[in-house]
Write the structure tokens for this entry.
Amino acid sequence: MLTIRNLVIFSEMTGSSNRLLLRLNSLDIKPGEVVTLMGPSGVGKSTLLRWVLGEPLPNFSAEGELTLNNNDIGQLSVAQRRIGMMFQKGGLFPHMTVAENCLFAQKPRSTLNRKAQAEKAMSMLSTLGLNDKWNHYPHSLSGGQYSRISLLCALLAEPKAMLLDEPFSALDANLKEEVRDWTFQQLKENKIPTLLVTHDRTDAHGRILTVNEDKEIVDD
Amino acid sequence: MVRALSVAIKFAFIVLPVGGGLMLLLLSSFSAESGITNNAVYTILSEREALVSTLLVAVVAPLIACYSALWLAPGLLKRPKLQQLLSPVLSVPHVAFAVGLMLLLSPSGWLIRLVESITGLLPFPPQGWPLPEKSVITVMVVLVLKELPFLLLMIAAQLKQVPASSWLTQAQSYGYSQRQAWWRGVTPELLKRLTLPMAAVIIYSLSVVDIPLLVGSNTEALLAQRVYEWTFQFSPESQSKAVTGAWALMVIAVLLLFLNSLHADLYRKWALTKALRKQWSNTTFSDKAAKITWITFGFLSLAIIAVLILQSVASSWFYPTLMPEALSLNRWQSEWHYLTEPSFNSIWLALTSALLGVIFAVVLLQHQREQKQKRSLNAWVLIALFVPQVPLVLGWQMMLGEHLTQGWNVMWVAWSHTVYTVPYAYLVLHGAYTQFDEQWLVKAQSLGYSARQAWWKVMLPMLRTPLATAFAVAFSVSIAQYLPTQWLGHGLTPTLTTEAVSVASGGDWRIGSLYALLQTVLPLVVFISVGLLSTGLKGKKTKAERYADYS
Amino acid sequence: MRVLALITLVLLTLFGTTLFGTPQAKAEVVNFYAWGGSPQVNSYLRWAQQELEAEGIQLRHNKIADASEVVKQLINGYSNADIIWINGENFHALKKANALLPIVEDIKGMQHINPELNWQTDFGEPVNGLEVPWGVGQFNLIARPGVFETEAVSAHELLRAAQDYKGRISYPKPPEFHGTTFLKSLLLSLYPERRSVFQQPVASVNAEEITQPLWNYLDKLHPLLWQQGDNFPSSAGEQVSYLANGQLVMAVSFNPNDYRTLVNQGRLPAGVKRYTLSNRAMTNTHYLAVPKTAQNPKLAKQVIEFLLSVQAQLRKADTNRWGDPSVLAPQLLQTQSASQQTELLPSTDDFHASWQSYLEQQWSERYQ
């Protein structure tokens, strides 16, 4: 379970001295649950995600408690937090094949040997029917294939929580639904608490949060 | 049209010059007076230590420079303005840099004088100091220190083309530490893009002459140094050794370039397959060591310039004084009158050949993109850099003939500079240009722009940092040309470099430093401008750019 | 687009002015290719330029890093040199390539040359009228006070000094001509009675036997030298820098006045003294020559006449400036100013030319 308590984020960009960006009193995400944060661009949703992920935020100052499965992860590095991510662009390393991407994703945490890692990735690909892309480079994948394989790699890294930042906005309408549903299903099956950020209502899933005038994140 | 231009450029600036030069070398290889003899081949092969030193310098120094640059590069991601720190070192001519380094670190250098003034333990320069005046180690140190900023500059240009930050984040989310993410996720791609710059660095390390002549060993001289010495000794044995040695250098060059082309792939294999050591190093890039290195490096480059300035205004400066005995501007004042002609020549030659170099490189690269030959071996464009300069320039004279050059010397000097700026501009641009994402152009065209407009309005502006960097590098390459300027110019195009090299040959580095500083000024201005261009005048992104990152 | 056009326009203008503004084959220009490594020589030539302008001649001093660059151009390429400053092996190579004009007969100033001066051979090679003497060179050592006990340094004395000042003595690496002359002087010191032997071609005497003592001596000397004889200064100029910065206690020179002029210029610390290696200094001459491909041989000769004039030679010999001894007969040089007096060291002639390459080759085989 992913928990956030008493989060305050201030912006430190020039021309605004310590202007409040966002506040969040309390948020619990259960395993397999998807919580969607909605709001217009510029309100700071991505900043929140980056704080959860553990990225350094040079233009902001943030305070809050973050726990994952009852462990305080606020002081841990990105690698140590075991949180996966899917952003709008990228997701796969363009200079590696699908195979290399999958193996790359497993290397730090997997206890399997290389062959077993390959087999695991292969079997996940086959449920998508994308085995034949094993040795292809990402640029030869279609939009939908790319998104799905991205999530696959993220899952292969055995994350304990997942962050999604507008992951479907680059897909066209009919593909979106298919990929979306598949994504949420995977996350549910793997019991991964997920925080989704989007500005598109149709992409929202599960509990929805918005940002009110006081810059506080509340239930919709 | 691109195709026609490309062919014309290749002919006029690659085939003709290199062919002409090699032609002379071939002819002299078979002539009675200076042909390749068994004796010559044997002499060269039997100088084992010299060959070993040569290979050591040409392999180890570039590799150290490369991996050190990659180790320091993450600092550029965090603080792009650090790039400006590189400008002084990049602009100081190689020999002047070596001299400056020696003035600081040699047994009679400033550092030792400092120790002597504090402790009084060193009444005269110590022997057995690790960085003596004449040794292979000193040559390697100079080369690494000079090539490191060049490679960092190349990496900086590539970092704009590659989403390194998001790759690092992605890899970290998989569980790699920051450092591991850099070395495993980002470096393979960077190394691939660095293949050509590394090729140039290797060829330079192999064929450089003036640095070993100054600070290298002369009993176990490097091969290029020996070839140069033999070239200017006029007995038949020396001449035939010079010719044989030139061929030996070219063979070694081809071999090393082949190895270089494998480097990126080998590294990639290692990065993707070798197991990780599971250390949870929670240090971020505030890797103390890298920070200290950047600071030291910045200090060193400023110190070198400072010591060159002091030398140039020193009346006299002997061991063990920390400051010159007296300072005077006499030297500057008396040289000032005579500086107009060389400065003028240096400027317009560098501007012209750098501009042409960049334009021609773009034409060649565009042609390559259109041919979809992105992955082909491109090192042949660098071929002008392999051939030792003496036979090359002599070959040009032979090819062009006396009557063709007379009266047109100035133009031929500019041409000869361009022959060297094209390969350098090409290698700086190559990675960014060929890897440029087609999607941007497709997007532009879908908005209604023609292919040509898309190229002007989308591609070129997005490549402005590599283009500017290519210009700066080409500019400094032209400034540094000595032999072609002397020999094709016939005294009509004295430049700051021809003056500097001839004046410094007598060993008086007070006046040598004066000219070295002048040689530095022009490229320095260009490099700083390029730095400002790529990092923005205030070093900060616009508000829009920042919001785009974080919303 | 407009920016590009503007840049192109600027460049074309620059290019055009250079192309059409440079002194092409204008009749008054004389191209003098001379080594540019000495600021004193450069100043002297700037003075000469000014004087010659009054005569309507534009003398261009084209600086080069080494005379061999021009020689290479003359032999294997093209050069527009009208006058060149050479001696020694560079002269030998040009003579062999038949690249020089015989000019000595045409120079009126030659009648004022010091008859004692042995300028007809250049490092042992007959000049045959192909080059005009310009100045005198006498091989000497410059050392810090107290290093040597006698003004004439014998090989034995050098060895003693090398032991006392371990690691602080050296000599330029042969085949640099200072280095080779150093070897010759050592030979003379080891063989003072056999002076005449060295005037004969090396092939006509038992060179191996004669030179063996030299190699034995060097085998003893080298471990005591700077960097244990593993490396040597590459030129006399470089060695002067080492003397200045304290690395070495001794430098070599062919200019007998360097020990004073270099101190005046701040290149060497005050107090350095001059010594000869063996009891006599190897004396030779440096020359001016006109290549056959010169475009203005007539004007070149005019320039040479000027450079041989009393006025020009006196100024050249001025120990407050260059200090290069004159080649003119001494009685012509009587003058008030003491600084323009030059005293020559006791001299000895150079060896036969064939010894040069023999010694260089032998040294290279043993110590390189």
